[in-house]
Amino acid sequence: MADTFRKVLIANRGEIAVRIQRSLRRLGIASVAIYSEPDRHARHVLDADESVGLGGHSAAESYLQAERILGIAVQTGVDAVIPGYGFLSENADFAENCEQAGIAFVGPTPEQIRQFGLKHTARALAIEAGVPLAPGTGLLIDVDQACAEAARIGYPVMLKSTAGGGGIGLTRCNDEAELRQAFASVQRLGQSFFANSGVFLERFVARARHVEVQIFGDGQGRVLALGERDCSLQRRNQKVIEETPAPNMPPATREALFTAAERLGRTVSYRNAGTIEFMYEAERDAFYFLEVNTRLQVEHPITEMVTGIDLVEWMLRTAAGNPPELSRRPESRGVAIEARIYAEDPLKDFQPSPGLLTEVHFPEEVRVDSYVEGGTEVSSFYDPMIAKLIVHGEDRAQALGKLQRALDQTRIGGIVSNLGYLRQISRASLFVDARLSTTALSDFQYHPRVAEVLDGGTYSTIQDNPGRVGYWHIGVPPSGPMDDYAFDLANRLVGNPKGAAGLECTLVGVRIRFHVETHITLTGAPLRATLDGQPVEGWRTILVRTGQVLDMGRVEAGCRAYLAVAGGFDVPVYLGSRSTFALGQFGGHGGRPIRTGDMLPLGTAVSAVAMLEVPVSMIPQYAQHWTIGVLYGPHGAPDFFSPEFINRFFSTDWEVHYNSNRLGIRLMGPRPVWARSDGGEAGLHPSNIHDTEYAIGAINFTGDMPVILGKDGPSLGGFVCPATIAKAELWKMGQVKPGDWVRFVPLDFATARQLEVLRDDAIQKLTPLPGLCLNQPPACLQGEPVLDLRPAQSGLPGVTYRQAGDSYVLLEYGDNVLDLRARFRVHALMEALKARAKPGIEELSPGVRSLQVRYDSRTIDQARLLAVLREIEDGLPPIQRMQVRGRVVHLPLTFEDSATLDAVSRYRQSVRDTAPWLPRNAEFIRRINGLESVQEVIDTIYDASYLVLGLGDVYLGAPCAVPVDPRHRLRTSKYNPARTFTAEGTVCYVFRYMRKRKTFYPTVIQRDLENGFS
Question: Is residue 95 within 8 Å of residue 117, measured between CB atoms?
Answer without folding.
Answer: no
